[in-house]
Amino acid sequence: MATSTATEVQTFIDKMNTDYDKLHKDFEDNFWSTKMYLKGNSGDELTRTKNVYEAFLRDRDNLAAVRSHMESSAATDEHKRILKCMERTFLCYLMESDEATKLKEELTGLESELEMERNAMKLGYTDPKTNEFKEASSVLLRTTMSTNDDESLRKACYEGMRSISSFVAPKLAQIAKMRNKISRSNGYEDYYAYKIQVAEGFGKERLFEILDDLEQSTRPILEKARAKLAKEKGEAALEPWNMRYTISGDVIKQMDPYFPFEESVSAWARSFAAMGIEYKKSVMNLDLCDRDKKYSNGFCHWPQCPYTKSDGTVIPCVTNFTSLAVPTAVGSGHTALATLMHEGGHAAAFANIDQPSPFFAQERPPMSVAYAETQSMFLDSLVSDAAWLGRYATSKEGTVIPWDLLKKQKELTHDYRVFAVRSMLIVPYFEKALYELPEEEMTSENLQKIADEIDMKLFGGMTARPCLSVPHILADESSCYYQGYILAEMAVFQTRNHFLNKYGCITDNDQIGKDLAETYWKPGNSEGFLDLVQKMTGKPLLAEDMVNDLKQDLQENLANEEKDYKEAVKAGPKYTNEDVTKLLNMRMRLVHGDDCIADTENLSFFDACKKYKDWIATAFPKKD
Question: How far apart are CA 153 and CA 167, in angstroms?
Fold first, then answer.
């Protein structure tokens, strides 16, 4: 290859980009089709396109060709930078033997079977009054546990959530054995060690140094919070079906009118536009409402990765993101809004990756999970800020949420925020324990037993969302993923403090979008997560800001938040009637399964929102 020319190196890069782009899109189109349960969706076709896609990624000839071109004297520094990203990507998927490759293909089929079975599972609860089984999604079960006044019904919904564990555990045990076997054939201790190394660039030991530090730092806060809840509300408040309802069930209902579901799209879009965020001509497909057989977790994926071709042609993002709103359920508006801010944050981050290859801008390894989740979690954190709520939390009639109600909510929940942190910790500790099990101990019974033991150890009792009901652990692309949320949460607190110290405010500050785009988003996976956090905040990733926030005195928090609230109400939102899709530089399609409800290609933003609102009123009529 030493005799190749710079043109030949570029031609090779262009071909790799085109080939990768097509295979990625073929798989992602099928991923969306099966997860949304669209007409004609096929688990077999999902498996086939995934196998073809991954065969390309683990093809040794591709890796050899990349390395050969890297060694060419004609390769420029920019060529080598692109080729290095390709090399890192291929190394994430390399199989050390033909046997491991065959086993991986069998595993993909088994994972697809489990996902399809879980999607089709008859989930629900047995009504304690009538003994009648009623179908309900996992989202509706959790919402009911949070807001319904009937404890027996809340408990029935919890038991419905528990039924997922026994349903998925047998096949998950088989899958775990195969995942470990493949990982060990590639030289890793186990599957968890493999996933962490390829996704984050550091090992399992380093990860659990960080997580153990956080666990130990927050354990006293957890113990204090559980003791306070039991003392003030009684021991029954600690039951998994009672905890969230006891803490905030009543205030959730009181706040509900200020988070109308049908206004959530408008609030998200106007808020992002006011922060100077844009989507670089992306097409956004939003499937927001729950329905039968739809995947039971919100997500954001990119069938079209953004990149700039060598001839200067810019390929913008195509983004699919989904939530599971039940528009008639109490709390659905707040949940939908938080999901929109979260998944919309993912979409903004990927849309702004400005690199010369789709290899820099795809959601799979070597893209850091923690990096990706930092962007989304930073933006959904705003929904808890009085500075944001005083501008965007308004009723259908335009009344701003009252401060007394926000104060009540904070008084009820402030000292219990540690519960969310500890709940997140449960998943990585469970997956670590799962993949460290000897193969003969990987049974359905042991998986369920370990899940419950880790709940007790890390939470002090059972949680409302059983570990085995978390959908991430089933799929290859999201298994051993949850630690990314925790690392990201640490980065979110650190990034928030950085911006507050630098600018004094985050909401409706158009400098925020600029800084995020330039420092966090533009590089994509060309820079490491820990390096980017230090680059943005000026210090290494630490748990300090997060732990200090959890320890903050309630009265100090209330004084700061009341000041921000009053300033927010006085200022109002930056944008009210503007066509913000133009400011956001995107096309928005509001869909429900196979149906496109509204599209800003032929409607203004507000006309699209109105059409969507009208559809919601018809599709989800309010019950008297």
Answer: 22
What the block records as the tokens of 571 is 């200022």
3-state SS assignment for residue 135 = strand
Whether 116 has a pLDDT exceeding 50, the answer reads yes
**Residue 327: strand, helix, or coil:** coil
Q: What angle do CA 200, 455, 160 make, to 5 degrees?
A: 105
DSSP string for 504-550: S--TT-HHHHHHIIIIIITTGGGS-HHHHHHHHHSS---SHHHHHHH
Helix axis angle for 138-147 and 332-351, nearest 10°, is 130
Do you know the residue count of the chain? 624
Amino acid at site 158: Y
Q: Tell me the C-alpha distance between 194 and 54, whole Å.
A: 16
- Which H or E run contains 371? helix 369-380
**Nearest 5 degrees, angle CA 159-CA 250-CA 555?**
120
Q: What is the pLDDT of residues 310-324, one digit of tens each?
A: 999 999 999 998 988
Phi–psi pair at 474, nearest 5 degrees: -85, -45
Q: What is the pLDDT of residues 484-499, one digit of tens each?
A: 999 999 999 999 999 9
**pLDDT tens readout for residues 376-416:** 999 999 999 999 999 999 999 999 999 999 999 999 999 99
